[in-house]
Each structure stands twice: as C-alpha cells, then as structure tokens.
Design goal:
This protein has 15 helices and 13 strands. The chain is an alpha+beta fold and 346 residues long. It has 2 domains: 157 residues, D-Maltodextrin-Binding Protein, domain 2 (3-Layer(aba) Sandwich), CATH 3.40.190; 151 residues, 3-Layer(aba) Sandwich (D-Maltodextrin-Binding Protein, domain 2), CATH 3.40.190. The strands form 5 sheets. Strands 3, 4, 5 and 13 form a 4-stranded antiparallel β-sheet that branches. The protein starts with a helix and ends with a helix.
C-alpha cells in the first residue's frame, strides 16, 4: 500500500499533536465509546474520588453517563452479578463481610488510599477533660451517661451508622463485646443529617459523642485535639470473621493528633479504600484494570475537597469541577496513568 508522503507527514503531525493534548478524540480512542456502569457510595465523602475516576475513564474514551449511588450491600450484589461494572469506594477490611457475595464475579484492583482510612469514636474535648473520659468503657459511668443523655432515658446517645453500612455491624459488635448495650443508644439515622445535628449541639455548648472515619468532613469542622478527641478501647474486640487475621497492632495508631493516648488503640482496623470491579468487565477492558492499579488520591486532597463540600460547594456540578481541577493540578501523574492504560489496551 502506497501513501502520499506529504499527506502522510501532515496526518502524522496532527495525530501526534492530538495525542499530546488531553481530552482529544485521538487520546480518548482506547475506550471506543463503551459505556461504563459506575456506582458510588451513599456516603458523600466518597463522591469526590468517584468523580475523579469518572473523569479519567472519560479521558480514555469511555462513556460514563451516570454514576449510581448505592449502599455497600446493593453494590456488591450488583457488581458480582454484572449489572454494575465498578466503584472506587470499597473499604477493606471493613467490607470484607461482603466477600462471599462480590468474589463470585468481582475483585479488588489497586488502592485509592492505602492504609490511611481510620475509624473510631470521638467526644467533645471539654466534656472529655471535665469527666476524664479516655475509653469507650467510661460510658458505663453514670456521670458520663448523663452528660450525653439527650432524651432522658438514662443512656448516652452516640451518632452511629445507618442500617446497611459496614460500620453499622462493627458498632453493633462493639456494643455487645464491650457490654455497652444498656449504656449507649446508637443513632442510626442518615449520617449527614445526624452529624449536622451533632455539630449544631456542639456549637450550642452541649456534649457530643459520635463515630466517624477519615477522610471525612467531620474531622475538618470538629478538629481532633481542639474541638474533639479520639477515645480508645481497653482491648481490641475483633468480629469473628477477623479473628486470627489481625492483631491489636492493626487497630493501634501512633502519633494520632487529638487522641487521648499515644499510641492510640481505636478498636478499628485501619482500612484501604479500594476500587472493586466486575471481573469479566476487567478482562474485556485491560485499560481500565491498569488505570485502577496505577491511580490513587492523597488522603489530604480528599480532606480538602470534603471541607469545600461542607462550605457549600456540594452540588454535583461543584464536585465534578473539584475533580476536574484536581486532575489538572496533577496532570503529569494523571497523564502517566492514562498512558499506561492506553498501552495495556494495545
């Protein structure tokens, strides 16, 4: 086959230019316009990572017309059955409880955040210091329960997790294992709404007791060490599925800002935040597998974005713009990930 040399040179130059410019048709051709059925968590702190990965998939040429919000049980059922392709909001080992479901047809790939997602219980610093609260076991003391009893039933109220979240099962296990069921009421309403109420009560000078995780806007507005403190457990009580797999070292953090003790045994295993994707989808889309393996987001950047959401930049348009801004600020790294993904598709 013979080509006109002038036209070939021109075409090659244009193609090279297009490949060098993110977002162009030539750069995005690897996805071929295939639709990716992407989910995101119902907890809003996971929406920014989902938006970042959505943008990168679109730069590869995939179509992501919508991102469906799902609770963890629904997502793992969907991704294993093939009605969803992926999300980037897996928490492990917290979500290991769903392994029997998702490992039938899906798998974890890469890390959004590795070993940086903490969980635990916090109280306002003022009450902690006044009543010498250092451990969750202190909530068996009458004066402590009274300080956090908002409805007069003799129990302390703790803002906890909604039904269906992985943390709900762990908190229930803790209440049983630490013999706290008759001392603490766990509030299981919408987390965002419950924490908004908790923040309001703190601003009114009331005592507060809540569960949270990082990254999360809660520790941006209620700063550990200044407004609130992390409290500890006297011993780690693992769920049956975790026994023999982890030790107390896995729940203990040294140098944690705002903890009442150092080292600080939170009672919760530090988690990875991981993508989870349908195995058949990954097999058919090696570019996506490679992107998920390569990409990550610093936990500090997620903190910063979550703070923007709490300052009012919380519309879907805002979150997608945050994602686009982050990609442009990290364009060199993102382009390396995308180049590796394109190479894998060859």
């Amino acid at each position: 086959m013979h080509f006109d040399r002038t036209k070939t040179a021109l075409t090659g130059a244009v193609a090279a230019l297009l490949m060098a410019v993110p977002g162009t048709a030539a750069a995005e051709s690897v996805g071929g316009g295939e639709t990716v059925r992407m989910a995101r968590a119902t907890w809003d702190t996971g929406w920014f990572p989902a938006a970042v990965y959505k943008e990168m998939l679109q730069e590869l040429g995939y179509e992501v017309p919508r991102v469906t919000s799902l609770d963890a049980p629904a997502f793992y059922q969907a991704v294993s059955g093939g009605s969803m392709d992926l999300w980037v909001n897996g928490w492990f080992p917290l979500h290991s409880t769903y392994e029997d479901t998702y490992t039938q047809g899906a798998e974890r790939v890469g890390h959004v955040v590795e070993n940086g997602a903490l969980q635990g219980y916090l109280v306002d610093k003022k009450t902690a210091e006044e009543l010498n609260i250092t451990s969750i076991q202190d909530f068996k003391r009458d004066e402590v329960k009274k300080a956090f009893d908002n409805d007069g039933d003799g129990k302390a109220e703790m803002t906890a997790c909604p039904p269906g979240w992985g943390c709900e099962a762990t908190i229930a296990h803790h209440m049983e294992a630490y013999d706290l069921k008759s001392h603490v009421d766990t509030i299981k309403a919408s987390y965002s709404a419950s924490m908004a109420d908790t923040l309001g009560r703190y601003k009114n000078g009331e005592s507060i007791f809540f569960y949270t995780w990082t990254p999360n806007w809660t520790v941006g507005l209620l700063e550990p060490g200044k407004d609130v403190v992390w409290i500890t457990v006297d011993r780690t009580e693992f769920k049956p599925s975790q026994q023999g797999k982890f030790t107390e070292e896995d729940t203990t953090v040294s140098g944690l800002e705002g903890c009442v003790k150092d080292p600080c045994n939170l009672g919760w295993i530090a988690n990875d935040i991981d993508p989870v994707a349908n195995s058949e989808f990954l097999e058919n889309n090696p570019a996506v597998r490679t992107l998920l393996k390569k990409a990550s987001i610093p936990i500090g950047d997620i903190y910063a974005q979550n703070a923007k959401m709490q300052d009012g930049e919380d519309s879907q348009e805002d979150i997608q713009q945050h994602a686009k801004d982050w990609i442009e600020e990290n364009r060199d790294k993102v382009d390396q990930w995308l180049a590796a993904a394109r190479e894998a598709a060859k």
